[in-house]
Design the sequence.
């Protein structure tokens, strides 16, 4: 089954007097096998279904536990009994042992295999040199080690919502970057950088830049990624994240492009520059990301799976091996380094049932005791309004680490709109009253309840809810929270007063045929329904998302934005186009 070609499906048509040959019986098996493997591949995916854990027995021996997996062809791989082997006796180790490169990483792989067994006498081979044929195929597996990483990681669950590329590889170092496939317009998302060290033992540091299109970081069109191992706890792998924001454009493509000459790497005391290449495509959408993932999967799943006509083993474990001449020591075993596992229905139902159970037990809506009567808000100066109060949150029999409690809705009395809420844990310890803002663990004093406070406001209802998360064991039935609500009246007056529309940025320098995104803003809010235009007939073009393309001749051109919801709001910006900066 080298090319994974399932189609067309053909099965035998039986009738009286039909002469059955080897081809007919082979077609019968092929039809049933291909149907089952097709369903395996499309409904379940590729990877370990259960078991197949790799366990380190001692410094030179590993054990593969019983288990079931589905390979890239949809074929079942069954390990029906534990297998214990010295690493040196596993196929592929001898080739690894003679390499000059002192790498420590080895991968234990498993692949589908079948063998012929049960020799029988063949009538058709009578009087020939080989009178026997084999009566059965026995399905099994092929276990081996390799130092090569997979060319492809197959159809992982994560591939549906993120894209991972290698930024740099060399000197025993591998740097990968993971970017979301979809970002909702006007919202923020995180990208992840993964640093892996194989045989490199010296501390490393690096930095590189990303050129952003359709996205921004801190209002700029570039993002800088930097890492210094000396500032982290030593490990073989590091993860850190950065944040990007999609501009207010809809149904367009954003890009994160590696700036090729920006990569600076320090290994130990040696510093050098390397060229890097890569471009990440991000779809900026106006719908929920979950809907986009589902729609894309149903549109392209079959085409993607059928197109991938390659075979690849399942990478069961990454083995950290230390070599010294002809000897070796297994330092560490990491199971399923590329997350090749099948998320089956039993596991999904179990996790969903557990999640629902936790929500019932962990989150309690506690009664909040508030003073009777309405307290008038205090006014500070001409702008700030302040309201204060206390809430008693009942914990019942107490709380355990990780348990959460939520209050009922609290009306702060400052009306509708944006309000800032400050919370403090109040009480007494050794007859001394205290108010703690933030995490009580910061203080060395004992006796404070170990918990974390948060508030969630509802601007349309003029209310908020207090949330409590236990950071340690709490042996009391209630806690007291003091709260203060603050409202800036100037913000409300500005919202009610005359609005103005501005373009961000209001002036930009470009080369001919270069592009740039503009945004229209009113009272700090990015406006989405804007009619964009260029005043000069030959001054370039601008689309509905605010993406401007400069013309083929230099000059100064005027960009005009008009709010389609309130046509009285207009703004202008200027573009200076030059042949060469």
Sequence:
């Amino acid at each position: 089954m080298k090319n994974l070609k399932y189609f067309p499906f053909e099965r035998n048509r039986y009738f009286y007097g039909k002469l059955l040959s080897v081809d007919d019986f082979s077609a019968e098996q092929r039809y049933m096998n291909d149907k089952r493997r097709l369903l395996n591949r499309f409904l379940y995916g590729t990877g370990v279904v259960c078991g197949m854990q790799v366990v380190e027995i001692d410094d030179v021996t590993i054990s593969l536990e019983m288990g079931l997996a589905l390979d890239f062809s949809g074929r079942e791989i069954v390990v029906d009994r534990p297998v214990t082997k010295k690493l040196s006796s596993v196929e592929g180790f001898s080739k690894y042992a003679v390499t000059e490169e002192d790498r420590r990483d080895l991968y234990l792989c498993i692949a589908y295999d079948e063998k012929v067994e049960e020799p029988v006498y063949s009538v058709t081979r009578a009087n020939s040199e080989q009178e026997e044929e084999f009566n059965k195929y026995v399905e099994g597996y092929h276990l081996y080690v390799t130092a090569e990483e997979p060319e492809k990681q197959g159809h992982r669950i994560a591939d549906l919502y993120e894209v991972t590329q290698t930024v740099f590889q060399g000197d025993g170092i591998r740097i990968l970057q993971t970017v979301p496939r979809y970002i909702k317009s006007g919202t923020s998302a995180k990208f992840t950088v993964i640093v892996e060290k194989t045989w490199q033992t010296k501390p490393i540091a690096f930095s590189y830049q990303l050129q952003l299109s359709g996205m921004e970081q801190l209002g700029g069109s570039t993002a800088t990624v930097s890492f210094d191992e000396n500032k982290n706890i030593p490990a073989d792998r590091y993860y850190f994240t950065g944040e990007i924001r999609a501009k207010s454009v809809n149904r367009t493509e954003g890009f994160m492009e590696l700036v090729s000459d920006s990569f600076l790497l320090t290994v130990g005391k040696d510093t050098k520059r390397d060229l890097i290449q890569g471009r990440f495509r991000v779809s900026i959408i106006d719908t929920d990301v979950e809907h986009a993932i589902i729609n894309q999967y149903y549109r392209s799943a079959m085409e993607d799976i059928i197109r991938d006509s390659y075979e690849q083993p399942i990478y069961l474990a990454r083995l950290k091996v230390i070599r010294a001449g002809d000897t070796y020591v297994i330092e560490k075993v990491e199971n399923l380094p590329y997350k090749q596992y099948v998320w089956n229905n039993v596991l999904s139902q179990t996790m969903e049932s557990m999640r629902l159970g936790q929500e019932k037990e962990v989150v309690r809506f506690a009664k909040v005791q508030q003073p009777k009567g309405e307290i008038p808000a205090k006014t500070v100066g001409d702008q700030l309004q302040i309201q204060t109060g206390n809430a008693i949150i009942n914990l019942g029999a107490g709380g355990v680490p990780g348990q959460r409690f939520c209050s009922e809705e609290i009306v702060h009395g400052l009306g509708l709109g944006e309000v800032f809420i400050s919370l403090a844990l109040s009480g007494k310890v050794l007859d001394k009253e205290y108010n703690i803002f933030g995490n009580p663990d910061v203080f060395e004093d004992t006796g404070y309840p170990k918990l974390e406070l948060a508030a969630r406001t509802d601007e349309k209802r003029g209310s908020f809810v207090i949330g409590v998360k236990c950071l340690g064991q709490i042996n009391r039935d209630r806690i007291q929270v003091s709260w203060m609500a603050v409202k800036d009246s100037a913000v409300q007056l500005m919202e009610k007063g005359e609005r103005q529309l501005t373009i961000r940025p209001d002036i930009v320098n470009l080369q001919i045929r270069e592009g740039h995104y503009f945004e229209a803003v009113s009272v700090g809010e990015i406006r989405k329904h804007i009619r964009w235009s260029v005043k000069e007939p030959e001054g370039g073009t601008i689309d509905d998302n605010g993406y401007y393309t400069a013309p083929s001749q230099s000059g100064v051109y005027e960009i005009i934005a008009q709010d389609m919801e309130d046509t009285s709001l207009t703004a202008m910006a200027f573009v200076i186009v030059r042949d060469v900066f």
